[in-house]
Design goal:
Blueprint lengths: L2 H22 L9 H22 L5 H15 L2 H13 L3 H29 L1
């Protein structure tokens, strides 16, 4: 399988996964985009796992790129994160916007770090 095909196929899976999760879990509290937040945390954790598996030689370069660039790129939602933060600010929802803006990258980093640390201990 070519790298371009792997990225394309995994990208399609990432986009469809995100779409289905968005449609399945409607944000109960419209003032905080919890679904986007959870998707981003899952994507960060997956990226951390892929990183370690690639570092250990478990994944081929094509599969690594397919998962990171394709799936995670299609699945995670940084542009949505930025737009939703801006929308909350425009609507005067300062506290939820600040929480979302600051907590997402901190927990995203933790979500990426934890599987890396765990996998390095296990492998």
């Amino acid at each position: 399988m070519s790298t371009l095909l792997a990225v394309s196929l995994f990208g399609l899976l990432g986009v469809l996964s995100r779409f289905l999760i968005d449609r399945t879990f409607v944000d109960v509290n419209a003032e905080f985009p919890i679904t986007t937040f959870v998707i981003n945390m899952i994507g960060c954790a997956l990226a951390g796992c892929v990183y370690v598996l690639s570092e250990r030689g478990v994944l081929s370069n094509q599969l690594q790129l397919g998962l990171l660039v394709g799936f995670c790129g299609g699945f995670t939602t940084f542009s949505a994160y930025a737009l939703q933060t801006m929308t909350m600010l425009e609507r005067g929802r300062l506290v939820p916007a600040i929480v979302y803006l600051t907590v997402s990258p901190i927990l995203g980093l933790a979500a990426a770090y934890m599987p890396v640390a765990l996998a390095k201990r296990m492998l």
